[in-house]
Amino acid sequence: MKYTHKQFTRDFPNDNACLDYIFNRRYGATFACPQCGKKGFHRIKKRKCYSCAWCGYQLHPTSGTIFHKSSTKLTDWFFAIYLMSASKNGVSAKELQRHLGTTYKTAWRIAHQIRSLMKQDTSSLRGRVEVDEAYVGGRTRKYGGRSTGNKTIVLGMVERKGEIRAGVIEDVGRLTLRNVIKDRVITGSEIITDNYTSYHKIEKLGYKHKIINHSKDKFVKGDIHTNTIENFWSQMKRSMDGTFHSISPKHLQSYVDEFAFRYNHRFSDVCLFYALLAHICEPLGVEVYGSVPYWSQRVSS
To answer: CA triplet 258, 171, 202: central angle to 5 degrees?
Structure first.
């Protein structure tokens, strides 16, 4: 679903409109005061808070969100969210700095806070699932093998016509790959991989396993292929090279989450901008943007 800049400026012309949106989404018109139990709040001028009309209890809608204790204007935050949701290839911190007129440090923090809303779902995939690994960054790699040099390894699994799960892993050993697959794909599903030896005999884990032999220049055999996951890698790598140029292994997972978020919402009836706002403004008591550790930490535990 498309959401244009014209619509954005109409919906959020100033900080008051942004704060009202956050308050209404988090609390709603029927929210009862925690102190007196009565309903009815009004805005306090020149402050980012609302006060109970009966007892004076104050609510701060930005508390506990990515806006918490930020001196940056809410319109700048919302515009940054709009830019990152509207761009297919991502938005660098330098570009945000130019758009918002902030320092680079502020722009970098805003971008990473927004990416924290894009954490991947932890639900498992099912059906026909393509599995493949990608090597990101670094400068050395032996051709004809999987010696990664100083590259960072990302493992991806995509359900045909469904969602993707992708995460940073420490190695491509058989134990690591098997543990991640068991954790992310429901037993009984059909796994499609290339002919890398670490994928061999995963049918012993209760999966159906089909292989396409890339070493013999075979890439499609009927409906057996890994083109779906490789298309995702292609888009992600082109965007990383063209937009961000260089990403440290420390922060790579958050960028992978960003591209996975866009992929998983490609058929959504809700535009990405409002999907991100929904994560910020979820009703209290619902955790939607907690920290998700690297897969390499999960499988080694």
So the answer is: 95
